[in-house]
């Protein structure tokens, strides 16, 4: 199927822009492939160390070049609900590998932190940087050069982008991502948000708040709202790095286990030892990246991916820009309503037809490149399926039928989208560049013009709210929250008070060089503003009372003032020394010093 000409044009532009970096990357991948099975270059001492704990049979197999060895990179820990299910995966993968005539070893572990645990805490200032650290940690595991393919066990916010960057850095290796799935549905996300607002207003206490949160986050699996973690799973399927239909099957179910075993066997089947060699660096190309962005817009996914996708693409020599993302947003309709863009959670989304139905509709619209390579060996049409379990415990896939989804309020047909454009918009103006997620913002709130109130810390806004000083129209300028300032933490503690004020009838909005992520909701929030305040960006020139205009429909972000006077202002500076120490922040000083801008991926890798 030929992609929409507008999609094809944007893709061609990315190809042309990327050509020097992409050609150099592909040459490095080819050079690595040309060396053959990699452990063959290891000395006897190297190899003996590498398989010292293997069984005699596995040692015999790994001594030659014909039996593939699968490296497992795992983000397991049992504090994170999304990653706890991975505890049992290595044993399952090793067994499946043996059945397929291969060997599997855990190559290494990577850190996996939970933004939900660290929200509003000092540890949150490590979160964004953990993505690049995860990529580096995975590289350490794979650097032993023992492996013919790799599988990656990760789900949440920075983990999957970091693992993808590592996978593409080791682009000569075939790669499959294996998810754990979402937790079962608990208390509705809408009720959870309501209790949070009541707590912010002082109408319920901590006991009631904790009880509500515990009903929402209650068992193993990913949080069920459509934040960055679940956006990650969508992206992996859109990029062909999952087995078809794998994204949203609950943990600890027979189908989940069957998909894990199938993914293992597929990873071994696409090594250089077989007939379908699929190195990930050649498989993922500009078309794959465009498909990912299309999926992000069609589902109203996480704003974090305006940074992560840029960084992930660059790991493969592909130069994706915010302008590309913005233009794709103008083309791609919103096809899904999942909280915070609707009442449904990801389990409802999956039950309504899930990724298979969504992909089918996007293909009908011509918005996807169907001719991409995937780990499944076919294009995106192979992902337009329902996945089920056979009686013998194997996986069965059935093509998605024409017609409506099982719940048209959650998943729309190609000819009945929820809105004509995607959920993310890029902003620009004399305040710099930024991002806004508007899929959950009511149309009448997409243009806010109001006086600026200045805050250099999210706690300052919280304190002002509790003191009753914010009962008015205003745009909160929360600055010195960018990657160089303090690691660009998410600012979700601002959502309840701003939501309360909006419900009281005030015109409110947020402008920040920090993040809000996939949980960005009903309050208009211009985020990732760059240049950031620490770099002397225009956001550092805004003064209390300046009239700020945030127009998400037209994509503008401006201070309404005399241009010459505004440009002549000296940017404000802030004492950020309190961000330098505690909870490991001192160890991440080099990251703060070397990190790039948000629109270039906020990466330390340049």
UniProtKB/TrEMBL annotation:
<keyword id="KW-0456">Lyase</keyword>
<comment type="pathway">
    <text>Carbohydrate metabolism; Entner-Doudoroff pathway.</text>
</comment>
<keyword id="KW-0408">Iron</keyword>
<comment type="function">
    <text>Catalyzes the dehydration of 6-phospho-D-gluconate to 2-dehydro-3-deoxy-6-phospho-D-gluconate.</text>
</comment>
<dbReference type="GO" id="GO:0051539">
    <property type="term" value="F:4 iron, 4 sulfur cluster binding"/>
</dbReference>
<dbReference type="Pfam" id="PF24877">
    <property type="entry name" value="ILV_EDD_C"/>
</dbReference>
<feature type="domain" description="Dihydroxy-acid/6-phosphogluconate dehydratase C-terminal">
    <location>
        <begin position="409"/>
        <end position="602"/>
    </location>
</feature>
<dbReference type="GO" id="GO:0004456">
    <property type="term" value="F:phosphogluconate dehydratase activity"/>
</dbReference>
<dbReference type="GO" id="GO:0005829">
    <property type="term" value="C:cytosol"/>
</dbReference>
<protein>
    <recommendedName>
        <fullName>Phosphogluconate dehydratase</fullName>
        <ecNumber>4.2.1.12</ecNumber>
    </recommendedName>
</protein>
<keyword id="KW-0119">Carbohydrate metabolism</keyword>
<comment type="similarity">
    <text>Belongs to the IlvD/Edd family.</text>
</comment>
<dbReference type="GO" id="GO:0046872">
    <property type="term" value="F:metal ion binding"/>
</dbReference>
<feature type="domain" description="Dihydroxy-acid/6-phosphogluconate dehydratase N-terminal">
    <location>
        <begin position="68"/>
        <end position="381"/>
    </location>
</feature>
<dbReference type="InterPro" id="IPR000581">
    <property type="entry name" value="ILV_EDD_N"/>
</dbReference>
<keyword id="KW-0411">Iron-sulfur</keyword>
<feature type="binding site">
    <location>
        <position position="223"/>
    </location>
    <ligand>
        <name>[4Fe-4S] cluster</name>
    </ligand>
</feature>
<dbReference type="InterPro" id="IPR020558">
    <property type="entry name" value="DiOHA_6PGluconate_deHydtase_CS"/>
</dbReference>
<dbReference type="InterPro" id="IPR056740">
    <property type="entry name" value="ILV_EDD_C"/>
</dbReference>
<keyword id="KW-0311">Gluconate utilization</keyword>
<dbReference type="Pfam" id="PF00920">
    <property type="entry name" value="ILVD_EDD_N"/>
</dbReference>
<dbReference type="InterPro" id="IPR042096">
    <property type="entry name" value="Dihydro-acid_dehy_C"/>
</dbReference>
<keyword id="KW-0004">4Fe-4S</keyword>
<dbReference type="InterPro" id="IPR004786">
    <property type="entry name" value="6-phosphgluc_deHydtase"/>
</dbReference>
<dbReference type="GO" id="GO:0009255">
    <property type="term" value="P:Entner-Doudoroff pathway through 6-phosphogluconate"/>
</dbReference>
<keyword id="KW-0479">Metal-binding</keyword>
<feature type="binding site">
    <location>
        <position position="156"/>
    </location>
    <ligand>
        <name>[4Fe-4S] cluster</name>
    </ligand>
</feature>
<dbReference type="InterPro" id="IPR037237">
    <property type="entry name" value="IlvD/EDD_N"/>
</dbReference>
<dbReference type="GO" id="GO:0019521">
    <property type="term" value="P:D-gluconate metabolic process"/>
</dbReference>
